[in-house]
Amino acid sequence: MTDHQDGASAAGPDEPAPQQPSSNPVLRDALRYGLILAVAIAVVGMVLGGVFAGWIGVTSALIGTAIAAVFLGITALSILIANRFIGSDLFVGLFFGIVLGGWIVKFVLFIVLAIVLKDQPWINPVVLFLSLIAGVIGSLVVDMIVVFRSRIPYVSDATLPGDKR
């Protein structure tokens, strides 16, 4: 007999704490390199925006890069936050709730920003669009490189019968 009631498992003194998913370092690297990329895109965008559109171009490049960085960071951050609940019996529901909540926040934020920034005199739409697109494409490239270099096995978090952690 065990001390556990109704099949619920609780980490006792002889049971190890749940292991964090092996995807966490990959997500942290994607955030770190994505931030470095966003700074580089902001600098290049500010210079080019300043040359072609003056101070309005500089402002537009900064706003476009910030939008790209925030939107692309929300997903990775929501997964990292959700992975903190891996030992919980409600992990699956919490995980998908947190990640879906992040997507909903991005959707609502996008609609609000589109309405607020539409036809503003201090925004150059071409510079804003190009810096936003550069941020999205650059982030996809960073994510691809980080994942390809991660060396995570296909079944990284599996526990076989008889395995001890």
The helix-and-strand class reads mainly alpha
**Shape descriptor:** elongated
- Helicity, as a percent range: 55-70%
The gyration radius over C-alpha positions equals 21 Å
Q: Which series of helices and strands comes N to C?
A: HHH
Overall strand count: 0
Mean pLDDT rating: 85
Share in β-strands: under 5%
Give the distance, in angstroms, between the N- and C-terminal Cα atoms. Answer: 22 Å
Largest beta-sheet details = none
Number of helix segments? 3
Q: Which stretches of 5+ consecutive residues score pLDDT under 50?
A: 1-10
Overview of this protein structure:
The protein has 165 residues and is mostly helical. The protein has 3 helices and no strands. The chain has helices at 24-82, 91-117, 125-148. Helix 1 packs across helix 3. The radius of gyration is 21 Å and the shape is elongated. Mean pLDDT is 85; it is low at 1-10. The chain crosses the membrane at residues 33-56, 62-83, 90-116, 122-148.
Which helices and strands, and how do they pair?
Elements: H1 24-82, H2 91-117, H3 125-148
Give a short overview.
This protein has 165 residues and is mainly α. The protein has three helices and no strands.
Q: Which descriptors would you attach to this protein?
A:
165 residues; mainly alpha; 3 helices; 0% strand; elongated; disordered N terminus; ATP synthase protein I
